[in-house]
Predict the 3D structure of the following.
Amino acid sequence: METKRNIIPYASISIDLNTKEYLKLLFEFAKTHSRPKLQNMLETTFLKNPEKERLIVNLSVRTAFDLYLQAANFPIGSEIIMTCINIPDMATVARHHGLVVVPVNVDFDNLAPKLEEIEASITEKTRAIMVSYVYGVNYDIDQIIQLAKKHNLTLLEDLAETFSGTDYNGHPEADLSLFSFGTIKINTALNGALTVVRNNDVLYRKMKYIHDLYPMQLTSTYLKKVIKVAFALAAINNPSAIQYAERDFGVSAKEWAVSLVRGFPADGDFLSKFRFQPCNTLLANLALRMQSFDNVYLAKRMKVLKRAQDRLVAGGVKVPGHAKQDRSFWLFPIVVPDIPLCYKALCNIGVDAYLGATQLRVIQPPSGSHYANVDETQAFFDNVLYLPFHKEVPDHVVDELVDRTIQAIQDVTKQLAQRPKL
């Protein structure tokens, strides 16, 4: 008979807000704010080299990317090379501007795009390279930057999943660095993004001019999102009831909770959803979150999770990006030998594994094109599960989660080995 163990009450995604911090966000709606003052506060906090860097505060990273492509105004049919693991919306934004997205495989050990594939993908139509740091892994892009300079290409870095504190705002030679503070990101303001534009005042002025023409996000729209997140906070940050309901009664409450934190609705005109300036209250909350962020605490907690990762790898569990020390563990993916069996085994021993914790997908090239499919990345991405590790999980719980996960994966591996060969 199958043994079910007590559920460990931590979910595979979290909202990086405690009750006090959430109430502070709400309190900002009762204040009157000076927009120039808030912009200055964010610039002072986040820019490292004000002589070479400019800051644009966006509604989202999608907004920032769309804004860049409007300002760049590339010819129809131009190509942009992208890290293949991404949210589909980023590729969709590029395609709406008539660009061809050329994805490249990522290395399993460090999750970096393969340099040789980037170089082989460059043609006379290539205009930019976008690297994305997925799952909180921050890898070295010096060689990619040199390659971009050699071919006179723009280098964009999408750091939506890699915020690791206010001490780092992207590679100092990247043309654009994009950070997200959406609902399930580290240091969330429940919306908003910061875009650093470097060494190109012409590009910055074009982007700012277009951005200043956008209508202002309604404060009431942002307020509705913040209030809605209160329900997700109760469910996701205190998931025991959901886990028991799903395990013992088959009630699918998890999908409902996750739906509350999704960034943008699927209906309506695609680009028009993103083309707003953030309201003053959102700027105030971004400034509040940036100025109160505890860099030391995050670094300390990441060391704990890095040790957990090392123990998992030593126990035979495959962890994408395990070779990199610089990691913020926004989500904690593992690659398993059999998704249904491993998911069931983990749930049965009280580990809240999850399949749909993120909108990340593998972006493939256009159907029927001559561009190569990114099958190498697709092969391991199709077997990704997410574990309930994040910075608020206590040390002793981290240890227990590691022990149970290793046990479950080893049991399934043995089970698979005993199956008759066909």
Notes: The mean pLDDT is 91. The first strand starts at residue 53 and ends at 58. Residues 19-212 form a domain with the Aspartate Aminotransferase; domain 2 fold (CATH 3.40.640.10).
